[in-house]
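Now for one specimen:
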Amino acid sequence: MDLGSPDDLARRLAATGYLADDGLATAAYLALAMGKPLFCEGEAGVGKTSLAAALAEATGAELIRLQCYEGIDASQALYDWDFPRQLLHLRAAEAAGSTDTRTIEGELYDRRFLIARPLLRAIEPAGPGEAEGKVLLIDEVDRADDEFEAFLLEVLSDFTITVPELGTIRAERPPMVVVTSNRTRDVHDALKRRCLYHWLDHPSLEREIAIIQRRLPDVSERLATQIASATRHLRTLDLLKPPGIAEALDWAAALRTIRMDLLQADAADRTLGAVLKHKEDLELVRGQGMDVLVTGGAAR
């Protein structure tokens, strides 16, 4: 797809509800134009995962997500054989009186018995009725170990996967790849060198207000401004989990649900669980007084 320019891509992303600043729109545009993975790093809740979903929607591609976690290995990211279906096929062949053992064994490793995991799905050609383009989200790569990083580097270098029973599968059209990290540990430079890099920070006050209003059109500008200001104030405190954009949106939605058009101390206290997720953080903020949150946040 010819996206024209970073500004064109920014407009397409905005149409999905994702407001990217100039730096992020340019990084995503270059990743698409140059066919390179985009490595997005930043605190939790700044919109890294949402970017991949917005890119898929903006380009009409299929979003494929590989969620990384401690202990993930290549088999869980590539493919697996559907053992129950293979066993049923074997029993059906036996019931039919088939005695050609070699043929039966060969049929057991037919493509129809292969369960494609995210990496294989991203590389395989699109099937009938499927979107041609694909966006592969490799989410929270910092949770995986060094061996899995090395494996990812190999896959991303040529977008080729070998299934011993079937042969080599090569991407006819490599997917757009978005790799995210919350920086809980350092990711090796070898993987970063393979990618374009962009650091995502929390949005400016004006952009956060715009995001709230874009995603929640029934929220007034005044309430959106109060929520964005108070959320930014919370990020300056020594919290276990500072709120991200998603929490700001949840907070605004919670206030609208109880039909509040203003952020007032009582309503803020009752809905604080929408924006803070730890008992210690709730106690810290309430200990300072909700008026401090409302007026102090609005003043920042």
Notes: The chain has a mean pLDDT of 90. The two ends are 42 Å apart (CA to CA). The first strand starts at residue 38 and ends at 42.
